[in-house]
Amino acid sequence: MTKIGCKHPIRIGWLILCFIACDARSSARRIDDSPPAPTRSALAAQLRLALREKLLAPFYPRAVDRDNGGFLSEFDYQWRPTGSQDKMIVTQARHLWTNARAAQFFPGDTTFLPGASHGFRFLRDVMWDKEYGGFYWLVTRNGQVRRNENGEIIKQTYGIAFGIFALAAYFDVTRDSVALRLAQDAFHWLDKHAHDPLSGGYFRHMERDGTPLRAGYNRNPPKDMNASIHVLEAFTELYRVWPDSALRDRLDEMLALIRDTMQVPPGTLTLLFTRDWKAVSYQDSSEAVRSATRYFNDHVSFGHDVETATLMMEASEALGLQRDTATLRAAKQLVDHALHNGWDDAVGGFYDAGYYYRNKPGITIVKDTKIWWAQAEGLKTLLIFGDRYPDDPLRYHEKFLKQWSYITTYLVDHKHGGWYDFGLDTKASARRNRKAHIWKAAYHDGGALMDVIRRLKTSGKAEFVVRRDPSHAASGTANPRETSADRQ
Questions:
Q1: CA atoms within 13 A on the CB side of 251
Q2: Of 50, 278, 291, 342, which is most buried with the most CB atoms under 10 A?
Q3: CATH of domain 68-280
Q4: Do the beta carbons of residue 235 and residue 254 sit within 8 Å?
């Protein structure tokens, strides 16, 4: 692979040398290099600058649509508006959430709170269906509801979840009771129409009036992992500001479903399901059929696995579960499997997809690109697990540092600002791709950086542990990544 450099890569080698020099009094059997707080603080300051200047500054206030409300959806690689600027509930909600949390994170900055209020008004006045309830999936730039290719108005659990998620964060920051009521209304609407009383969880698609499409829609199965994990995320966010008993029951239900049903050996998430939570698989289909599904549908998504590990832990924490070893064990299995099988140990980063073929040993990497959101979620998760398991042979802290080096080298655009949508090491053409589009706001990367910076500022048990032990290679993992010889 061709390596694409950048102007300002992190001095990771210098950092690691500093860590090694921090504690010369460690035993000869094992060197525990736990640097003092300023080391973590220095890295936190670096990430804070990258967050504010390289990620948020290109987006805001540039993305605020002052003429039509809400946020612009698409910008080219030089941050020029492009495309139709249709507005999807997911994108609009993510912009609202990011502005709300950024206002909280940068209290002296006057950019974000007005942006959050602007976004809230658009969700309330335009995206919410005043006749039937629920959020529309897609509107035009000026707020006209867009029908799909079949002429229908279909609502999606995924979109409703992000509306709830954003409104809860906005209420948390502003204490605006109107925002909380709308979040509550959205929860009740979703629960009334999309919840499955027989098998649990939520149907993915609904007609405009809320009628659930129990058999699925447009060749899509009725239930899936992606909507489910973001329902979990949304309910966690809402429960923190509104500890309602019915909401708690649903949050607990979703956590158990994801942990005990969606996650399967050897530590991955199943992606698509029938109504009664049977996995939809194409393993017995021909290669042509699998390829035609574009994402294989039953592939291993390393990004979703590491993201879900953290979402489960956050849900457990919000529920106040004490000694929740089941969730912690499941989360660790997801992360460890992703590191053993989907991690690029040469430069860092998680590959996009692997596949367990029935007639091949191990896992085959079927998409070696590295999409931006998976790298952001991976960064956050690696730090969390490094802090929780400093003695683990997988060396999460070392991989966290390598992951930040990867991001600043291959994902951050140091010339124009923003993040590329794919790492340049495996997709050099991403340099000219759009910096923002309907599926790319500043939610994954912005949220991850804010969480990482907060955690880096902690001290004591949360300090880095970087090991140099004669029995281990300097950058090795506990087990090598298994791949097929004819990697696709």
A1: 27
A2: 342
A3: 1.50.10.10
A4: yes
